[in-house]
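sry for the spam today, last one i promise. struct tokens for design, 1323 residues
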């Protein structure tokens, strides 16, 4: 975001070559004077001094031309810089490639030297371009005015002075040698005093003054710690004088000094006393020509918003100025001001609510601001969290405002689809947070119902986006075949889809699944399934010829129904899941014989849903009984091969076309695979295929490396069949002695070994085209040879063949290669480790002597092998992982800890690890997961008790580790709930960053908790009872269960709840909760707590209690239903029988600031001109009256320009701007009318100016001046003075010296207030 980057810049401003005139400031105006302001754009004054000044127009045109030239040159330099930067990155990447290759290659060295020379030249060109940019930045200055500039100022501004090249003034001071020297503080204070004296002097030229400001900036940057010695009052007073300068760079440095000064300590009261907010408002309302000054002013505003105390010193005028910029969609600083508003809300939401800032945030949320939507949504959700901040949000209404784009089909514009996508992202994020979900479910789930019903709207793109949004809401990973399926093709789920289904459905239930159960129940209750079915029905009733998009939507809705049925079976109780599985509304349509077309569509939808469901459930059954199915398949193949006679076998061989042609493309590969895995398992048929025909010979000839038939096949998924058949052939041949003999006599293994020998750096003579070069490994099927060799590792005969051809010896040497990590990784993943032999030794060698990234990869792979394979060789794997705990790299140690932690989910592995007694002291907290695993067994408990680990760890968890666990869990949940950053819906139906999402989903199960593991054994339960920790936790929950104010208590309460939940998740720990009768308190907090995140924590804790059958039974008594498998095994999920008891939030009173009272100053006489100015200013906030009011002000400015030099009148206008809502162009127009010169006594008048909005008043019957305001209450602040009484504020009139204009405002206050009351009644 450009504005945010500008706000963080610290580049010193250039020096402006103009002479400083009298302190004067206005706001820029246009040239359409006298035309007034229409409803959209602001027109400006027709003052002759501003519109007829030809010299000023020429100067402005010259300045604009110069600015345009500078901008064009800078743009060209930026383009060159971007090109050179890309060239530099390309050269660096190329160097990395050359460094990874053989360093001894002469050609590589020559090319690398050439690239290094080009890289050095590119770096020099980048440095030169940066110097030129710095030069042009020094020249890029703005005209020293805000619009209206008197003639004498223009003449003086055309003069110039010579900028000194070095510091010549005696008061200039550098702090480079004094940054941290205590002895030189006095010198720095003296230098600051000299700078103050110089800044107060009016005789110094602007260049000297700017030089002193730069010195002050350096002092404040380098020595913020000596702030207590600064003369703060004098500094702010001098800097205020600089803020009124006509030289832009002086104002910039003054803002920078104030910001640095405020960063060293609380400066709010001082800045408020010196009326700095007047200058901040003036700068923020400037036009784009003074962008740098606006940025510096905004930076100063941001210094106030770090704390709630700082927000108290931020005036409403400044707040409304920031809000006005945030509301203007074409403003460059809009994003920065929106960020600032968000930070203000986090610090103290009340001033933002008082000034109407929430509306700007909600409007920005509905816009397509990709860089800010997530941040602003988090601000909105933060407001919903607690009752202290919730009162500033309208329950259910503000969120519906953001979602209105789904149903607003009558205002479709060019950016409609982008706004719909942005709103879809917001809905997804809200559903994934407790605060957002509770708010969407307000008013009987009205927002969700509206969202579901909007799917029926006749807009195809809207339907598509909403369906994609629902896929993301329910975390449905779209399969690769979805695009083909939507195009009407018949598809079959691939093995990858099966693996995905296994990954998502066979894992233990986690916190994300528990949250999904609530979301799915809410959408089912709001009619999502019926809406999807009606979508299929309605689109089928009125089909359009050739409407492909409509058919795609119907098919996608069908897939969504199928996925939701599977999800319901997974996360919902049987009472809610079974009615959904029957799809009664769709069945009713399918059984209606009166409408054959509609019936056909419904039955077709049933067929598709049934196909998808059967594929997934069939996969699940297959994976649950994989070993039995494989054995059964082997027996069938063996029986078929035994019974097949010679004639039929020869017929099968002839049908493969291998014997009749050498063209591989004509071979029937599926039949070849069936023969290899079937009849050739019979030794007789194998001997016939090997000796009696050329079948085996031609197959092996196809795989020979030097024939380049298999090895030159492009690497693709379709060609993986060749590798699969090659592995099956090797496995079949290695299963019999005849096959082993034939394979040893064939040249294929020797040729593969020769190819591997080409990579041996010691004994090899590299050829011109190595078989296993990096390029071929990446682009062709050459890497498949490693899988074939890995197949031979599975049997003793195959291992002997690998030993005979010295392939294992080559693996040992290749594992030491520095530049071929691809070969090493392929060796690691291709070998089979089921038998004790060379593969285990090779892996052990790689894990202990390879490079760090290779050791890390091998350790991770070993963990996957232990997790996926049989338990018969886990002894060796566990021991090898224990050696990795002593690796020099902590990353490898941590990976070994994670692998062991996953392996220890099996009791046998855990017992073995306890017997090994690994040393984990050097790992610190990283080793805690393994130690916590030890607690879950009696042997491990005894081992840790002997180490004196348990008592100390128990005290540590009681004091602060519980809170760390809570923070870690909430951060983990936040990452799991986080949405992908850009464009969640891609064209192929897949979400971006899907691998990242899968990684998060795979880790959603809770990490072990000390108390949860402790209560798994009787010894641990006895120790917990002796320590008395659980009694303390129970007392804390009973005492603070209703807390909704103190954040520290709420945080501690969450940590205690997680501890109690983990204790109750075990059969030994659940009696602790029964004894203390804690379940009813947890259920009460889940249903009635005012802190929404605390409700969510209690919901998760109740799910932990449902991990045992006893916990499920206990929760039944409190109206919560546990979710069980078909075998009555608890899943660790639960739902309230009445979900509204959990989702319901009691309504709250929305905050409304009291309408400002009518203030009547203690003055006797009034002035009609001032009254008319204030009245017209107030009317500018009403877009209906804007045009007439702007014409009136332009006329008054032309006839009575002296009124607009009155500081008192300007103060009254600022009070109006601070009380009521004005759009940004209106504010600029109003401030542009005034020309205030700060000279002499004007500074005293500024000090005495009352900008607080209150003054001495006379009240009658409770109202000032006896005015009756019972005509109707005003709206909440921020919607304009025409709907509420208007305050009029009186300056101190005795201090005025300007006699040309009468400035007594008090006598007109009552008439002015009555005018506004008339407008109020009229409107």
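last one done:
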């Amino acid at each position: 975001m450009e504005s945010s980057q500008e706000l963080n810049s610290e580049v010193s401003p250039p020096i402006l070559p103009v002479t400083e005139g009298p302190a004067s400031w206005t706001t820029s105006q246009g040239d359409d004077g006298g035309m007034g302001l229409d409803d959209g754009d602001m027109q400006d004054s027709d003052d002759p001094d501003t519109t007829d000044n030809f010299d000023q127009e020429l100067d402005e045109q010259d300045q604009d031309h110069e600015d345009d030239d500078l901008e064009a040159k800078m743009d060209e330099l930026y383009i060159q810089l971007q090109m050179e930067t890309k060239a530099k990155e390309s050269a660096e990447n190329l160097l990395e490639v050359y460094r990874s290759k053989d360093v001894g290659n002469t050609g590589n060295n020559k090319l690398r030297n050439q690239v290094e020379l080009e890289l050095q030249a590119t770096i020099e060109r980048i440095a030169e371009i940066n110097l030129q940019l710095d030069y042009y930045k020094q020249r890029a200055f703005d005209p020293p005015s805000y619009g209206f500039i008197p003639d004498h100022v223009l003449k003086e501004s055309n003069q110039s002075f010579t900028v000194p090249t070095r510091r010549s003034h005696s008061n200039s001071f550098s702090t480079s040698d004094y940054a941290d020297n205590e002895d030189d503080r006095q010198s720095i204070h003296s230098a600051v005093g000299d700078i103050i004296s110089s800044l107060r002097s009016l005789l110094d030229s602007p260049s000297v003054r700017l030089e002193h400001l730069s010195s002050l900036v350096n002092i404040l940057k380098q020595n913020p710690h000596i702030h207590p010695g600064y003369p703060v009052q004098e500094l702010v007073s001098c800097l205020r004088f600089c803020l009124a300068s006509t030289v832009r760079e002086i104002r910039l440095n003054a803002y920078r000094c104030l910001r640095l000064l405020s960063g060293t300590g609380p400066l709010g009261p001082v800045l408020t006393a010196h009326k700095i907010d007047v200058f901040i408002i003036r700068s923020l309302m400037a036009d784009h020509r003074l962008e740098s000054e606006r940025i510096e002013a905004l930076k100063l505003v941001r210094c106030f918003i770090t704390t709630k105390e700082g927000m108290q010193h931020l005036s409403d005028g400044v707040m409304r100025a920031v809000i006005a910029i945030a509301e203007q969609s074409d403003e460059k600083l809009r994003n920065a001001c929106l960020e600032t508003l968000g930070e203000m809300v986090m610090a103290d939401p009340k001033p933002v609510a008082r000034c109407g800032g929430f509306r700007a945030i909600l409007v920005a949320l509905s816009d397509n601001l990709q860089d800010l939507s997530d941040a602003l949504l988090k601000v909105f959700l933060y407001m919903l969290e607690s009752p202290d901040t919730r009162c500033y949000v309208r329950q259910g209404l503000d969120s519906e405002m953001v979602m209105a784009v789904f149903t607003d089909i009558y205002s479709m514009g060019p950016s409609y689809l982008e706004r719909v996508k942005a709103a879809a992202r917001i809905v997804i994020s809200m559903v994934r947070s407790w605060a957002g979900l509770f708010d969407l479910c307000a008013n009987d789930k009205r927002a969700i119902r509206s969202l579901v019903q909007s799917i029926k709207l006749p807009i195809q793109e809207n339907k598509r986006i909403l369906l994609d949004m629902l896929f993301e809401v329910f975390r449905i990973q779209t399969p690769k075949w979805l695009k083909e399926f939507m195009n009407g093709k018949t598809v079959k789920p691939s093995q990858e889809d099966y693996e995905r289904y296994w990954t998502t459905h066979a894992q233990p239930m986690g916190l994300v699944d528990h949250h999904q159960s609530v979301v799915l129940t809410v959408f089912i209750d709001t009619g999502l399934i019926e809406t999807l079915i009606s979508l299929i029905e309605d689109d089928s009733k009125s089909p359009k010829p050739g409407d492909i998009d409509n058919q795609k939507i119907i098919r996608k809705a069908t897939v969504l129904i199928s996925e939701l049925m599977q999800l319901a079976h997974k996360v919902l109780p049987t009472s809610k899941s079974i009615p959904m599985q029957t799809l009664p509304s769709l069945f009713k349509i399918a059984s209606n014989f009166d409408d054959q077309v509609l019936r056909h569509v419904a039955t077709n939808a049933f067929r598709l849903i049934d196909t998808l469901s059967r594929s997934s459930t069939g996969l699940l059954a297959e994976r649950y009984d994989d070993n039995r199915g494989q054995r059964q398949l082997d027996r069938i193949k063996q029986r078929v091969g035994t019974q097949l006679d010679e004639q039929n076998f020869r017929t099968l061989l002839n049908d493969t076309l291998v014997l009749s042609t050498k063209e591989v493309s004509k071979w029937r590969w599926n039949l070849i695979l069936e023969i290899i895995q079937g009849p050739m398992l019979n030794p007789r048929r194998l001997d016939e295929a090997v000796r009696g025909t050329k079948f085996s010979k031609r197959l092996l000839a196809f795989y020979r490396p030097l024939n380049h038939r298999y090895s030159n096949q492009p690497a693709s998924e379709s060609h993986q069949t060749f590798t699969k058949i090659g592995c099956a052939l090797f496995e079949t041949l290695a299963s019999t002695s005849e096959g082993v003999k034939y394979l040893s006599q064939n040249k294929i293994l020797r040729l593969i070994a020769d190819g591997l020998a080409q990579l041996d750096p010691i004994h090899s003579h590299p050829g011109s085209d190595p078989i296993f070069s990096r390029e071929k490994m990446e682009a062709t099927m050459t890497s498949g040879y490693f899988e074939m060799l890995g197949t031979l590792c599975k049997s003793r005969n195959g291992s002997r063949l690998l030993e005979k051809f010295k392939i294992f010896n080559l693996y040992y040497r290749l594992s030491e290669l520095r530049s071929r990590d691809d070969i090493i990784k392929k060796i690691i993943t291709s070998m089979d480790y089921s038998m004790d032999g060379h593969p285990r030794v090779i892996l052990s060698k790689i894990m202990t002597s390879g490079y760090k990234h290779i050791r890390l990869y091998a350790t991770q792979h070993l963990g996957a092998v232990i997790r996926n394979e049989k338990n018969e060789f886990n002894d060796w794997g566990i021991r090898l992982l224990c050696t990795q705990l002593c690796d020099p790299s902590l990353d490898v140690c941590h990976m070994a800890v994670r692998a062991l932690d996953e392996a220890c989910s099996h009791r046998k592995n855990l017992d073995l690890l306890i017997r090994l007694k690994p040393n984990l002291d050097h790992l610190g907290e990283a080793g805690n997961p393994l130690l916590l695993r030890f607690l879950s067994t009696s042997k491990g408990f005894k081992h840790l008790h002997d180490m004196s680990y348990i008592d100390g760890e128990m005290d540590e968890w009681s004091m602060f580790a519980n809170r760390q666990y809570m923070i870690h869990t909430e951060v983990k949940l936040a990452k799991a709930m986080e949405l992908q950053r850009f464009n969640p819906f891609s064209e192929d139906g897949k979400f971006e960053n899907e691998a990242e999402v899968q990684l998060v989903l795979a880790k959603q199960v809770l990490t072990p908790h000390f108390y949860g593991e402790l209560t798994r054994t009787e010894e641990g339960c006895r120790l917990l009872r002796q320590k008395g920790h659980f009694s303390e936790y129970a007392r804390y929950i009973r005492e603070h269960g209703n807390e909704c104010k103190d954040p520290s208590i709420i945080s501690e309460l969450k940590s205690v709840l997680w501890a109690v939940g983990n204790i109750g998740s075990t059969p030994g720990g659940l009696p602790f909760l029964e004894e203390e009768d804690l379940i009813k308190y947890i259920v009460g907090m889940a249903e009635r707590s005012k802190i929404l995140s605390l409700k969510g924590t209690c919901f998760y804790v109740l799910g932990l209690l449902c991990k045992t059958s006893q916990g499920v039974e206990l929760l039944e008594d409190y109206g919560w239903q546990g979710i069980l498998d078909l075998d009555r095994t608890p899943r660790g999920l639960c739902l309230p029988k009445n979900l509204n008891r959990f989702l319901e939030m009691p309504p709250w009173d929305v905050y409304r600031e009291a309408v400002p009272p009518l203030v009547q100053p203690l003055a006797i006489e009034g002035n009609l001109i001032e009254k008319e100015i204030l009245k017209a200013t107030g009317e500018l906030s009403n877009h209906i009256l804007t045009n007439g009011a702007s014409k009136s002000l332009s006329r008054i400015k032309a006839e009575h320009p002296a009124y607009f030099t009155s500081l008192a009148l300007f103060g009254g206008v600022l009070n109006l701007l601070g009380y009521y809502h004005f759009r940004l162009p209106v504010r600029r127009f109003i401030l542009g009318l005034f020309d205030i010169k700060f000279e002499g006594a004007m500074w005293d008048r500024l000090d005495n100016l009352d900008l607080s909005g209150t003054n001495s008043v006379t009240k009658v019957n409770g109202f000032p001046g006896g005015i009756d305001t019972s005509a109707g209450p005003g709206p909440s602040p921020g919607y304009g003075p025409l709907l509420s009484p208007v305050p009029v504020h009186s300056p101190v009139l005795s201090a005025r010296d300007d006699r040309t204009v009468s400035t007594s405002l008090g006598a007109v206050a009552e008439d002015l207030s009555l005018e506004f009351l008339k407008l109020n009644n009229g409107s």
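The chain has a mean pLDDT of 75. ok im logging off now
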